[in-house]
Amino acid sequence: MNKRPMTKEEQLKGLQEHWKKHIPFVLAIIDGREIEMRSDSRPENAWKTMVSLDFIQGYEYRIKPVPPWRPFANAAEFMRFADRWIKCRANGELIKATRVDNSGIAAHRRDQISFEFLFKNYEFEDGHPCGTFDDEHALLQD
After folding, report:
1. Please, are residues 38 and 60 in contact by the beta-carbon 8 Å criterion?
2. Edge-to-edge, what's the strand order for the sheet holding 104-107?
3. C-alpha to C-alpha distance for 77 and 71, rounded to whole angstroms
4. What single DSSP character describes residue 126?
5. pTM value?
6. Burial class of residue 57, CB neighbours in 10 A (0-12, 13-18, 19+)
7. What are the tens digits of pLDDT across the range 29-72?
8. How many Å is the Cα radius of gyration of the chain?
9. Is 131 exposed, middle or buried, given 0-12, 13-18 or 19+ CB atoms closer than 10 A?
10. Which residues have a Cβ under 8 Å from the Cβ of 66 and sit 6 or more positions away?
């Protein structure tokens, strides 16, 4: 049985539908997130990080979950990081805490920075969030 060739409009519509389902993955990659894949037929297989943006039939995909981070709750939580450089996400400026109390930090030539503001606007020099891993939240995700 011969199937009629698709019109250009049908081809375009098919291409649009194909890529619509991949838009969240493309946006995640732009945001620096990783995409993972595993075989549809073997869901017990571990998720593996994609190394190229090839969506292969027979595989399922997901945006790699981000560990749940939260702002530091108090000075005690921050203290083990007190000697690390902290980078402003907006301009790349590096600061180091000169004083720490339960409401946040002070840095050279800076007013008090709350832990909440620090979490939203800064990261450690190595790129890790300027906060702490929320173990309780992680357990709820499993």
Report:
1. yes
2. 97-101, 104-107, 113-114
3. 10
4. T
5. 0.52
6. exposed
7. 888 889 999 988 777 788 899 888 788 888 888 998 877 899 99
8. 22
9. buried
10. 33
